[in-house]
Prior knowledge:
By secondary structure, this protein is an alpha+beta fold. It folds into two domains: 160 residues, BirA Bifunctional Protein, domain 2 (2-Layer Sandwich); 210 residues, no CATH class. The protein has 14 helices and twelve strands. The strands form three sheets. The protein has a five-stranded antiparallel sheet, with helices on both faces. Strands 11-10-9-12 form a four-stranded antiparallel sheet. The protein has a three-stranded antiparallel sheet with strand order 6-7-8. Helix 1 packs antiparallel against helix 2, helix 3 packs across helix 4 and helix 10 crosses helix 11.
Amino acid sequence: xxxxxxxxxxxxxxxxxxxxxxxxxxxxxxxxxxxxxxxxxxxxxxxxxxxxxxxxxxxxxxxxxxxxxxxxxxxxxxxxxxxxxxxxxxxxxxxxxxxxxxxxxxxxxxxxxxxxxxxxxxxxxxxxxxxxxxxxxxxxxxxxxxxxxxxxxxxxxxxxxxxxxxxxxxxxxxxxxxxxxxxxxxxxxxxxxxxxxxxxxxxxxxxxxxxxxxxxxxxxxxxxxxxxxxxxxxxxxxxxxxxxxxxxxxxxxxxxxxxxxxxxxxxxxxxxxxxxxxxxxxxxxxxxxxxxxxxxxxxxxxxxxxxxxxxxxxxxxxxxxxxxxxxxxxxxxxxxxxxxxxxxxxxxxxxxxxxxxxxxxxxxxxxxxxxxxxxxxxxxxxxxxxxxxxxxxxxxxxxxxxxxxxxxxxxxxxxx
Length: 416
């Protein structure tokens, strides 16, 4: 079991998050503690009012909303009664047993999990100290519950994953899963975990899972307004199905959000640059020229995905590498001139792609538009995005966003 405790400043946002999941049919409201009636009798207003009355008793405490998720292994089949029992025991063990709290069973991921919503303000107006609650109380409670309820232990699962080859993530395929959910799962993970510095680089990572981000054609209203939408790709790499607006995905992976990531990721990806260069160099260690297949196979063993960027006319203007082990994305020219598309294709004996002038120089991070076409040299995705189908520790995503407000800078000398 993996437990995640998120604190926030707006109980309404966290409640809305869970209630909307229920409305969408991907969650069930299964338990209410200290509300004085059965869960079926509680309206949204009654739930919110119960929390807000307590919060009003302590105006000084700004962080007053607690959102907890308990995540279980994909192999575990846990019924409603057992989930409620686990929630009750957990809340007692972390010191929230007498607090009002709501429990929701979520069905929007491959692994079973529940969300618990509560406040740290007590009836007498005093607050429950949540400093280091994860380390000091939650971890201890989690381990005890794993034993008491005979659950898969998080530690043993992590050790097992280090020893065996992780299962590949199922690609989002149109017609097999609900489109928006499939896209959202892929986008959430890639936008958060991968280090990309341009939209083409971001798309190189997304395409591994049959998803693409699209600004629309230059000159269109969507392009002018910095809009962005996501689409699924079929087996040929063509868009299929109805596109999903970035703003409609809960984590809001919009173009302005991504542009902030571009700048941040410039520095974050640098420590992994040398590994990628070494892996490419090793492909040619014993040969000055190798076949395209051999090049792809060698990088696939290192969990590196390679894509050539080319125009509609077939001219290659760049090459992109996605290192799925370190989760960084680099255009070849950003690694150095010897790693540009032109330089590398000259060393691949059966390469037959004309290159455009200038493809061997320039910064790929300056590109803003998605490439017109990709030629995938290999599809090695072996240690990547496993949390699309399994619980992952320290995974702070949608619930956190729901509870956050923009933080104001603290004035020096003021206490909270």
